[in-house]
Amino acid sequence: MRITSILLCSLLGASTLSYAANQKSNIYQKGWIDFNKNQKKDIYEDPTKPIEDRVNDLLNQMTLEEKTGQLLAEFGWPLFSREGNKITLTDEARKVVVEHGTGSLWGFMRADPWTQKTLKNGLNTHYAIEATNLLQHYCIEETRLGIPMFLAEECPHGHMAIGTTSFPTGIGQASTWNPDLLRRLGAAQAKEVRKQGGHIGYGPVIDLARDPRWSRVEEGFGEDTYLSGELGKAIVEGMQNNPEYPIISTVKHFTAYGWTEGGHNGGAAHMGENEMQEVILPPFRKVVEAGLLSLMTSYNEIDGVPCTGNKKLITDLLKDTWNFKGFVVSDLFSIDGMTGHGVAGNLKEAADIAFQAGVESDLGGQAYRNLPELVKEGKISEKQIDEAVKKILYLKFQWKLFDEPFINPKNELTETELSEHRALAREVARQSIVLLKNENQVLPLQKDKIRSIAVIGPNADTPYNMLGDYTAPQPEGSVITVLDGVKKAVPNAEINYAKGCAIRDMSDEGMAEARAAAEKSDVIILVLGGSSARDFSAEFEATGAAKASRNELSDMDSGEGNDRCTLDLLGRQNELLDMMKETGKPLVVVLIKGRPLAVENCQEKADALLDAWYPGAEGGNAIADVLFGDYNPAGRLAISVPKNVGQLPVFYNPKRGANRRGYIEGDANPLYPFGYGLSYTSFSYDHMEVTPTDSHVKIAVTITNKGNYDGDEVVQVYVKDVISSHSTPEKNLKAFKREHFKAGESKVVELLVDKKELELYQGNGKWELEPGEFIFMAGGSSESLPLKTTITL
């Protein structure tokens, strides 16, 4: 028997039933699909049997080609067509499902300019259920063993599909310094994927970003090892451990992908073993220990070895040392890309290298079609294939794909659920906003005193510029811009809007209009920055990365593939800033962007400066909440902001032996350091006690809110290992906590540092807490640490 009889009439949408009636009308008998010819149930079809037994039973019935097909992950969106309300499978579906026997699809629900799926022909939260049911039904009916398909979807800041919730991008999420909040975010995006028929979410991204010229800074959690690990773990737990709608998290990218040569996406990484073990790898180890079920390799190479073919990393370290039990998937075409690295002459050789290294799933699905031939040639054993396939099948049974392959249309995402997720997106955006400057307390703006406001700039009312890369098309009005948010916040004020200029276009056509709008207003809100918004005229690499271009008509200056060689505001933005300053009006600058930019001009000219990163669909409301005092900002930088590109790399914790004394033209200090952020109130750090226990070091910090506003403080604890066996940084973040204080409130905030966080790598896979003195420092940023205590461990 292929599959247990399934009652479908109440489960499948009209398009599925239509397909079945047209293609195989004889299989429907009183609403049941029955593939059982002899009424005998195989072990793998019996949900009462242990998963291990079901996996082995199915594996024993599979041919070599069926096994290797389970290791393919191909494009999902070409497999369906939607015209109006009608959804059908394309000829590509037969090729992928039947001929290739593919086990997983990527981006079945994805919509964007690369896929050419739009609001008109793509899948929203309603049609996705019909389409995924149709697809799974086709897999079950048309393949010999009826193995359902894994559906993997992009989830860097929400499910990348039409009608879902667009949260702030990763660097904004990191600026919240709030793991509990991000755990809720992970659970929300998991629900949106699972209720549409998906099973795997690609995210979070935990690559450390040490060069802001890199195009993908926006996706990750910044420059720090500890912060990235804690936030990454929280999202993984939210995605995988929520009881109702869990999905498999695929963390990206293993490894050193953000430690780029020249800021190039996919550039080579250069580092020694100690740096790799102590800086790059700990966040990945942390998510593995949290139960991660899938990990994606990276495009880059380290010391000449492409990460997708690095056996020492994937098998020896990840699997054998860390005991990772999930499956490893290549980044898109990164197995094929080993021919470009010059370590493989063709796709078959590339497949051999990647498989022997420990990659179980080929995203792109081209190279691993050579696996059967490699087995027949004796280069790979069928036993090795079996072990890889078992991981995929085990998770399919664990996620109940065989027992519950279809989604009930009655369980569609509700307006209430989506509204709750929008509210969460607004909260994440509010907590992510970093107040960089507030001269003379120009903020918050007083709603009852301001008669007119100029809202100016290329990002003041451009919806897609709010969202970042990996974003689906948005229905009209679904993205709240800064202009929208200001209008809602002060409905009785006169709002004078002018774009002024674009992000990159050098036209000065709108500058006069912007000056006029500013001249007749009491205060100016100037919204500058960058954009990762793709448009349907853009060109793309085979991997989906945008091709970097000097085309000034595009706003896109960030997002995958858009590396930069400068960090200045592009186009006429600095001219617009200077013009606004010349008016003499109070000037509030809001930055919306995907990477740190060199904004000394903003720091000098603005009376107040906010960094909102890409704040997502509710960003305009969140920014207005902060501008008008409905929310007291407490975001903290997760990445240092350089003064200029010549300082790079700039990060808070270089090795103590590094020469960071400065240059002929200026100092080596960042414009704003890691962990920095202001508030509408102020906090004093009054006392610290550091108490070692058997497994932890307990830190108790007395803090007082000295101002007149309630607000959050992000308490940060850094540690210096005074004398060590090899050079270490002056300080490393080892604990943090976002804590709320009422105006005038004083309390003791307790934090714990796991002693394992203080261990150093000894070589040969060994770690040790080296006895000696440790300096514990507490404060509000990496450069503001008023409390220090030295202990001996």
Provide structural commentary.
With about 800 residues, the protein is α/β, with parallel strands linked by helices. Among the domains are: about 425-635, 3-Layer(aba) Sandwich (Rossmann fold), CATH 3.40.50.1700; about 685-790, Immunoglobulins (Immunoglobulin-like). It is built from 21 helices and 30 strands. The strands form eight sheets. An eight-stranded parallel sheet has the order 14-11-10-9-8-7-4-15. A six-stranded mixed sheet has the order 16-21-20-19-17-18, sandwiched between helices. Helix 1 (about 15-25) packs parallel to helix 5 (about 125-140) and helix 8 (about 225-240) runs parallel beside helix 10 (about 280-290). The longest helix has 18 residues, at about 415-430. The chain is globular, with a radius of gyration of 27 Å. It starts with 5 loop residues before the first strand and ends with a strand.
**Largest beta sheet, briefly?**
8 strands, parallel
Estimate the strand proportion. Answer: 15-25%
The CATH class name of the domain at 425-637 reads Alpha Beta
Roughly how many Å is the radius of gyration?
27 Å
Second rung of CATH, namely the architecture of the domain at 425-637: 3-Layer(aba) Sandwich
Strand segment count? 30
Protein name: Glycoside hydrolase family 3 N-terminal domain-containing protein
Keywords: Hydrolase, Signal
Signal peptide: 1-20
GO molecular function: hydrolase activity
